[in-house]
Amino acid sequence: xxxxxxxxxxxxxxxxxxxxxxxxxxxxxxxxxxxxxxxxxxxxxxxxxxxxxxxxxxxxxxxxxxxxxxxxxxxxxxxxxxxxxxxxxxxxxxxxxxxxxxxxxxxxxxxxxxxxxxxxxxxxxxxxxxxxxxxxxxxxxxxxxxxxxxxxxxxxxxxxxxxxxxxxxxxxxxxxxxxxxxxxxxxxxxxxxxxxxxxxxxxxxxxxxxxxxxxxxxxxxxxxxxxxxxxxxxxxxxxxxxxxxxxxxxxxxxxxxxxxxxxxxxxxxxxxxxxxxxxxxxxxxxxxxxxxxxxxxxxxxxxxxxxxxxxxxxxxxxxxxxxxxxxxxxxxxxxxxxxxxxxxxxxxxxxxxxxxxxxxxxxxxxxxxxxxxxxxxxxxxxxxxxxxxxxxxxxxxxxxxxxxxxxxxxxxxxxxxxxxxxxxxxxxxxxxxxxxxxxxxxxxxxxxxxxxxxxxxxxxxxxxxxxxxxxxxxxxxxxxxxxxxxxxxxxxxxxxxxxxxxxxxxxx
Length: 508
Known about the structure:
By secondary structure, the chain is mainly beta. The chain has 3 helices and 40 strands. The strands form 10 sheets. Strands 14, 16, 17, 19, 20, 21, 23 and 26 form an 8-stranded mixed beta sheet that branches. The longest helix is centred in the C-terminal third of the chain and has 60 residues, at about 380-435. The chain is rod-shaped and about 190 Å long. It starts with a helix and ends with a strand.
């Protein structure tokens, strides 16, 4: 009884079979994929399958069992059974796997090889990016080529990240490697194809090394850099100072920097790619501030009536923040520290002062002395004494004027004495002559015209009055002498006035 049951179970799979046959199903096989070739077989009732196997048509058109092919271990794997499933799995499919495959099996009574074969065509995904080099903003199309008779759904990746739209406007971040795959077999991918997105320079920077304080005499290097595709060549860079072109090139070095190099620097770059109508792109400005110790230290004098302010001046960067004054009495004596501050006040100065002064200006980078400066110079002495000299001149002028007036007065008095003597003498002579020749009724008058020269002073007259007029002019005196014809009568009337004074003042 147990034997009968066993026989029924063994032959049961072939109960529904009608003939010997093997059925293959078409499918797309991708390179580098692991594929299961779908296969079914059948046989007449009463047969029991004892062996199954796959073969491939070799170079000589002979069937070669898969186990005898030069392939890696596990490359071919039978995943069917003995009851109608003859599926074959091929791992890591390569182009060498292309060919015709046959399935065969044996029963306890016979053997069978399929009359048809599975024609394996290894398909390879090929991605295409059109165009592969594009300017930023232009359109890009992705195409995946797969020669499969069955419909498949293609997906895209860029550097491992999904790309949802195969047509897009290129941006610089879209540059990278693109590949396609079949949905469900994402691990089987096409060879990557690069998309090159070109764009104009941006993020322009100008760096200065060293970046800290720049001291006169040191070395400074400017370097221009910008993000661009294609990269900016050496001839595509240019450096400017205060708007004036210095040179072309990415680097610019000043080996012995001077204060005249201070200013604002910037660079521009171009790579033949335009952006929004512009193909030149500038960096931000870099300010170069060359620092140095004080130079051109000088002393300026500001003179008062009897004092002097000495002011120290210099050119420095940063400006001098400390001033020290030194003095010595003569070129052979030692220097003495006499004060600090930009201005030194000397309250009392004499023309005989011979001191020499030096100003020392300093900042964080060093100190510098002025040349020795005398306290009194010809020019300053003249400025210092101008008021004194002017006062002395006025005093001398006044003294001279007074001396002239005094001398004139002396000369005037001397002339008056001489004139008086002459007048008396003339009167006496006239008296002697008048008795014989003159008319007893004659009247004589001596009149002197005014003169301002001492030599032309009028002769002295007994009737002359020295009092000045209210106009401040020199007085003109007229002397009138009455000589009576009969002296006895004159004597008789001696008690009467015999002199008449007349004063005549001249005016302009």
